[in-house]
Amino acid sequence: MAEIQLQGVSKKYSPKDDRYAVEHLTYTIPDGSFVSLLGPSGCGKSTTLNMIAGLESVTDGSIIVDGRAVEDLEPHKRDLAFVFQDYALYPHLSVADNIAFGLRMRKLPKAEIEQRVREAATKLELENHLGRRPKALSGGQRQRVALARAIARRPGVLLFDEPLSNLDALLRDKTRAELKILHAEIGATSVYVTHDQEEAMSLSDRIAVMSAGRLEQYGTPAEIYRTPATEFVAGFVGKPRMNIVDAAVIGPHRVRLEGTSLEVDVPDADLGERSAVRLGLRPTECALVAGTAAENDGTVLVVEPLGNATDIMLRIAGGEFVVREAGFSSFAPGDPVRLDARAAAPHVFDAETHLRL
Ligand SMILES: Nc1ncnc2c1ncn2[C@@H]1O[C@H](COP(=O)(O)OP(=O)(O)OP(=O)(O)O)[C@@H](O)[C@H]1O
Ligand SMILES: [Mg+2]
Predict the structure, then answer these.
(1) What is the pTM of this model?
(2) Is pLDDT larger for residue 354 or for residue 261?
(3) Strand extents, DSSP E, 189-286
(4) Which of 207, 233, 259 is the last residue before a domain boundary?
(5) Could you list the residue range(s) of the whole structural domain that residue 70 is in?
C-alpha cells in the first residue's frame, strides 16, 4: 500500500545554479498504479525518481508517501526498491546471493530469504541460473536478476530508471510485456522512467510528460494521446510524430493550413480573437489524393514503405508534412498531391503559449 504525492517538488543541484533541474512538480501516483515519467534527455526524469528514492535531496516542496512526508527519510527507511539501467549487480556474488542481498541486509530469517529468492527466481525464469555469476549471463538475464532482486524485497514502491534500454529491440518488447504481467501480479506502486513514448503508453496507467524540468501533462495514455495539453506533448507522443503546422483562422471554428487549400473544422477549439493558431494532425488520420501541377497542397518528398503501412513525407508551403497510408503506396517522389484531413481529430494550440485551445 503506497500512494505517492508530489507537492511543489523542485530541485536545484547547486545553490549557484540559476535554473532548477525540476520545478514545481505536483501530482499524485495512486496506490498500486504504474506511472511513467516520460520526456527527452535532460528533462528531469531521473532527478524526480531519485528524489522519490531518497538518493537526491528535495530543494523545495514535499514528497508524501501514504500521508507521511519522506523527504528527510534515509533511502533504506523508505519502503522501496530500485531497478537501474545498468542493473547494478554485485559481480562477485551468484544470482541467488544477488537476489538475497537486500533481504540479508534486513536480517530476514534464513528460511524466509530462501523462499523469497526461489519465488522471485521462478517468476523471472531464473531457476536454472541461481548459481551463476552475473558475468556468465546475457544482458536480458542480468536485467531479470535486477528485477528479481527488487521484487524479492516485496516493497510498497518499485522504481525503474530506463530498465530496458540496454536490451535489443526484440527482447525489449518481450520484457515489456512481462513487466506488465509482473506488475499485475505483485501490485506494487511502480514509477518508471523512460524517454520512449511507446514504452510509456503500453505500460502505464498514467504518464507524467516532462520537458525542461516541468510537468507538461499528467494523465492516462488515452488522455495524453487524444487531448494533448500542449504542443510539446502532441509532438512527443505518437508515432509517426504529429504534424503541427501554422494555420490561419477563417471562421469561428474553421482554420486553413498555411499555404494550402486545406480547410479543417475545429468544433471543440475555442479560437477566441486569434487570427492564427498551430494545428496538429496525426499522420495516421490524414489521406492523400492525386493533385495536378496547378492544384495541389504540396509534392511528395520521400516514400517510406514499412510493410503494413507507408509513410509519405510531403513538402508543403509551411514546411514538411507526413501522411501514413495503409499497405503500399502508389505515390512517388515529385507527385503533386492534395491533403484530405476529414477523418482527422484536429488539435489546436495557441501560437504563443503552445497550450491546447
Ligand atoms: N548530479 C547532478 N549535478 C548537477 N546537475 C545535474 C545532476 N544530475 C542531473 N543534472 C542536471 O539536471 C537536469 C535533469 O537531469 P536528469 O538526469 O534528471 O534528466 P533525465 O530526464 O533523466 O535525462 P536522461 O534521459 O538523459 O537520463 C539536466 O539538466 C542535468 O544536466
Ligand atoms: Mg535519466
Answers:
(1) 0.93
(2) 354
(3) 189-194, 206-211, 214-219, 243-251, 254-257, 263-265, 276-281
(4) 233
(5) 4-233
